[in-house]
Design a protein that fits this description.
The protein has 356 residues and is mostly helical. Helix content is 74%, strand content 0%. The protein has 12 helices and no strands. Helix 1 runs antiparallel to helix 2.
């Protein structure tokens, strides 16, 4: 009974947080959008940014606070930042209404303007097999069960499990959200991953396969502006490297903020160091790859693939996961995913398959 009461209180707080967020987005739609684009509109949105940063602090569930902070603090603020200058997905809505605005601002939906069609454009035309979701739910359930015996497992094996756990958990939750978005509005959510297990380089992994939602929002807000400004001072090659390093730095700082929401302890800057290190390695990889291609050389994927895994896995175990493990976030999230897997298997799978 005590657990059920705590869960009910958390869900009630979660609902209040999202009602507050929707009211803030109504302000953005009805008032801020009427202000001329540029500095004045940005100034009018600064209170909304502050409210979005504060809202996740009301939650304690790792999964609820994780997705809320990701959708509101990262995607929401960055999309509204672009909207301040009449850019980004919020500025591309061809037939705007408040429902479209709220969903696009707070969820990973990116609409492309099209001259002959309405706003309900599918962003992912490839239909995944119906059995794939059931397989991912089964694998996540197995990982959750195996994690109960982590004291008896090798740390490197646990590292692989944590990566799979992160990948599958995000995929399943976004499928549930996609079902809701497709039912209400008729368009699909952005894919989060593009077969990351097939990547052959760091550039391929971070730019084209892993967490594509973040890649799409960081490019127009950080990478492109920094590259344009840097080109005037250091030339195109150095400007590209500067933009890449800046993008990884911002990603690290945003992850640090996400970690604070999850752990509620002062930042240790480990995860920022992880992303700065990944940025430096990616820059070196790009420079070396261009030099090799200029000479007609190409590193075989049998070499580049395992090398990329090592560069990701070793710093990941050293810098990415420790803060979460020290504060028991993995244990709390695992317990919640057990509930999620049960809910998906018994409640959502029949509904999702019926809508496909």
């Amino acid at each position: 009974m005590e657990i059920e009461k705590m869960l009910g209180d958390e869900i009630e707080r979660f609902i209040r947080v999202w009602i507050s967020a929707i009211l803030c987005l109504c302000y953005c739609y009805y008032i801020a959008s009427r202000i001329p684009k540029g500095f004045l509109r940005l100034l009018s949105l600064l209170p909304i940014f502050c409210i979005f940063i504060i809202l996740p602090l009301s939650l304690s569930s790792p999964n609820l606070v994780g997705f809320t902070s990701f959708f509101l603090v990262w995607l929401g603020i960055f999309k509204l930042l672009l909207f301040s200058f009449n850019q980004g997905p919020l500025a591309l809505i061809s037939s705007p209404n408040i429902v479209h605005f709220i969903f696009i601002a707070s969820l990973p939906i990116n609409l492309k303007q099209h001259p002959t069609t309405n706003v309900n454009i599918n962003t992912n035309s490839t239909q995944k097999p119906k059995w794939l979701l059931a397989l991912k739910v089964l694998l996540l359930g197995l990982i959750v069960r195996v994690s109960d015996y982590k004291e008896n497992l090798h740390p490197r094996f646990m590292l692989v499990l944590y990566y799979c756990y992160l990948y599958l958990g995000l995929e399943i939750v976004l499928v549930l959200i996609a079902a809701l978005v497709q039912t209400v509005l008729g368009f699909e959510i952005q894919p989060l991953f593009n077969k990351p297990y097939l990547c052959t380089s760091l550039q391929d992994f971070w730019g084209r396969r892993w967490n594509l939602i973040i890649t799409r929002i960081l490019r127009p807000t950080i990478y492109d502006p920094v590259r344009r400004m840097s080109t005037c001072f250091v030339g195109p090659l150095c400007a590209t490297s500067t933009a890449m390093l800046t993008t990884f730095l911002v990603s690290g700082l945003m992850h640090e903020l996400m970690y604070y929401y999850l752990t509620r302890v002062p930042p240790t800057w480990e995860v920022t160091c992880f992303f700065v290190l990944q940025g430096m390695c990616t820059v070196v990889e790009v420079v070396v790859k261009k030099a090799m291609e200029h000479r007609g050389w190409r590193l075989h994927r049998a070499v580049s693939g395992p090398l990329m895994v090592v560069i990701l896995a070793v710093p990941g175990w050293w810098l990415f996961f420790p803060q979460l493990l020290r504060n028991g976030v993995d244990r709390k999230a695992t317990e919640e995913y057990e509930i999620l897997v049960y809910f998906v298997v018994h409640s959502m799978l029949p509904y999702i398959y019926g809508s496909l």
